[in-house]
Design a protein that fits this description.
The protein is an alpha/beta fold. It has 18 helices and 14 strands. It comes from Desulfovibrio subterraneus.
Amino acid sequence: MTTIGEVFLVDDEAEIRQACRQTFELEGYAIRTFKSADEVLTEISPDWLGVVISDVRMPGMDGLELLRRIKELAPELPVIILTGHGDVPMALEAIRLGAYDFLEKPAPPEYLIDVARRALDARRLCLENRNLKQQLETSFDLESRILGNSPGIKQLRQTVASLATIDVDVLLLGETGVGKELTARSMHECGARRAGAFVALNCGAIPANLVESELFGHERGAFTSAMNRRIGKIEQAQGGTLFLDEVESMPLDIQVKLLRALQERVVERVGSNKSIAVDYRVIAASKIGLREAVRSGAFREDLFYRLNVARVAIPPLRERTEDIMLLLRHFMGIMSERFHRAIPEISPETMSKLQQYYWPGNVRELRNVAQQLVLGLPLDLSAAHLSDDGDDSPRLFDKAAPLDDLMEQYEKQVIEEALARNEGKIEKTAQYLGIPRKRLYLRMQKYGLQK
């Protein structure tokens, strides 16, 4: 028989505990026995799938007081009361306090099993209904946060709704501008930690020598400019969520310390040897596949596996073209209110151009386009992804060519455009493209490109 929940038995008599353990284990139930009410209370939680069976007369806290305490911790948890005394007033008091049932010892084994089975079925149904209600509320809320009707976005909302109610660390993967922080914030605000803080840290935007202090904090005098104590981002996320964006940019020496903080949920401020326990959830995000970063030696393998518990891929805008006009109208509405301008009509030519555009900047670039349209400015679309003659299709496909040649031509154009946008700066261009700097150098050499 499949185990369908857990049974906690509380009785001060060793013989009763042993007999009940054998009875339940023979029927395939997981059972734990306790000799006092105080011992079992520390094991009770509001979401526990199980049932408590307790004797009434015990040294210290009796069964009725245990029932009262359990109902304070988990009001819907079934509690079955056993007594060796046929005491009708006591039975009535137990039922009044919320006992699931009241049995007189010695209860026939088959009857005790049947009552426990029914109690577990009721408990499971209660938890399933509660989880379903939470998921429905989360799903409804997510539709107003993560917009779109494409299959990829519907799947993303479903995944976020599931992970929001599970306290597990998450790794988000997606190109620049796809909405990784929006996804992380939605997961936080629709989950059990929404009462806590959402603390974001862009690992790629902080100088390498300051990352440790930003994450872990520092004590006064820890280094020359440390005039006062500083609380780090991890401590700020106590009871909430820490969002680490561009985690692939984190220096290797800091990755070692982050791994310990994730494994043990403790931090040590710079300049201190005191460990501070912190209760937080981590959502990390990366523009590149971290496996590639591990292979190149830029990212620690052990940290990758620690973060890669629940991985969520966010689709780029070019893979969800049916969402473009929905998102555009949404952003135009926001810009219209911000700048007190009417929402303009979009010409069929412009709509066609936007639908066929490659969107290297994804949703962030689309938001900029919405602002340009509302303000009546010329559209600033990447030249590498539009033809020169006004045709909406990319010029790469104007003539037949082998696929490999087309891919190389396209890659060269993208790199040229990225270099131009970032003023020829290699580090910024590599970050913009979401690739390691070494890989960018190799591609530039391959295509004969200069800074």
